[in-house]
Amino acid sequence: MKDANRSGNMPRIVVVYCRNAVSSAAEMLEGPYTAKGFNAFFAALPCSSKIEPSYPLKMIADGTDGVLVVACPEGRCRNLVGNVRAEKRINYVRSLLDKAGMGADRLALERGENLMEKDLLVLAQRRLGPVQMLGPNPMGRVTRSHEDEGKKVKPRPARAVPRVKAGRRPSAIRKKGK
Amino acid sequence: MIIAEWKPLPELVDKLRGHTNVLVAGCATCVAECAAGGEREVETLAPLLQMALKKEGHTITVRTRTVERQCEWEFVEELAELVPHVDAIVSLACGIGIQAVAERFPDLAVYPGVNTTALAIRQEPGMWIARCAACGDCVLGETFGLCPVARCAKSLSNGPCGGTRKEGKCEIDENLDCVWFQIYERAKSRGKVKQLLNVRKPKNWSNSGHGGPKRVVREDLRP
Predict the structure, then answer these.
(1) Contact A27, A143 (CB under 8 A)
(2) ipTM, 2 dp
(3) Could B43 and A101 be called an inter-chain contact, meaning their C-beta atoms sit closer than 8 Å?
(4) Inter-chain CB pairs, A–B, below 8 Å
(5) For the segment B30-49, what is each residue's pLDDT rounded down to a tens digit?
(6) Mean pLDDT split into 10-residue runs, chain A, 178 residues
(7) How does pLDDT run across B122-160, given as a tens digit for each residue?
């Protein structure tokens, strides 16, 4: 019945972002968010390298239509090579998704720095096209309470995370791969 | 350690068609070290199997559990509480662990999730290379600590074949070191090249693959 019910539902995109890739001034998005044309869920990681292969796979097996991992630009990782490792891991999981017949494009990596809230939304929006090309997730969907209510969830303010003060740079989004 | 590799996903999917409740069982020792069957791999394979089968129209429930060692009965017992809820087990342990699980739960279908390939060492992160063939007649004392049985493509006992490349690589793979070249270099550095001229007698294989499965008995440890 899940599949039948989801036909009218909007795609669900999970965005997992490195906490160091967002601007310290940004009011970071965390948790569910209803945007125009899709439902998003935002989650911060201390470093993109903390993503394990099982995380996006479980999200997709749970019915998520697409997962986006947002990492810092190559060479700008606070933990030296975290985002390089994340990229290798993402590529590995993409190959697994392909073998499972789900489509590699359900998972992608984007790079960016000093990202603001709107930048994360733009990145999530950008995932929508490739994900919609694959069609609805055949796994069906576990309904989330906020989606039922169809309301926008107010983003929580950024947590107090100790950050090294670096010169403020203009917000930049760099697309890597698909 | 014993190393293994995941079986191809289509092979696993083929085995699991018709099952509805599956346990993916990991082993946190050797196969975890070689990134084939530890908790991470179990948690990665489980949703993959669900998705691959769902794509074919089969819905399965997958449970996961990783025990310390599937080759020890005490640890295998930890799976017993899950067995009543599943109709098949995919074991990501080496061949020893898979057989232990199948022996402990004989009424259940137990499928290997990996192909066990060798006794190996982690050469560098993400690369494991065979070091031992469990031949039952160790010659490492005569070959300066380098095993020609496991590390020579032809398992030669008395020196290299004629195919060694100039840079000391094996003729079958330019990235593979010729172990007899390495044995010679090590003998030379220790000033014992002449020792390599000793002809080794035919190897005694009777302590390994001959005469049925190998069995070691220590009466002092038996109950």
Answers:
(1) no
(2) 0.88
(3) no
(4) 46
(5) 999 999 999 999 999 999 99
(6) 46 94 80 89 94 96 96 92 95 97 96 92 93 92 48 47 43 49
(7) 999 999 999 999 999 999 999 999 999 999 999 999 999
- Kindly report the length of chain A: 178
Which candidate from A53, A138, A139 shows the least CB-CB separation from B44?
A: A53
Q: Which CATH superfamily is domain B2-117 in?
A: Response regulator (3.40.50.2300)
CB A100 to CB B40 under 8 A? no
Cα separation values, A40 from A15, A23, A113, B32, Å = 7, 20, 20, 34
Q: Spell out the domains of chain A, with CATH numbers in brackets.
A: 8-139+171-175 (3.40.50)
Neighbours of B137 (CB within 10 A): 11
CB-nearest to B47 from A61, A101, A138 is: A61
- Tell me the chain B residues in contact with residue A52 when contact means C-beta distances shorter than 8 Å: 40, 43-44
Contact B58, B152 (CB under 8 A): no
**Are residues A60 and B9, on separate chains, in Cβ contact within 8 Å?**
no
Q: Do A99 and B9 touch (CB under 8 A)?
A: yes
Spans of all domains in chain B? 2-117, 134-199
Token pair, residue A62, equals 């749970």
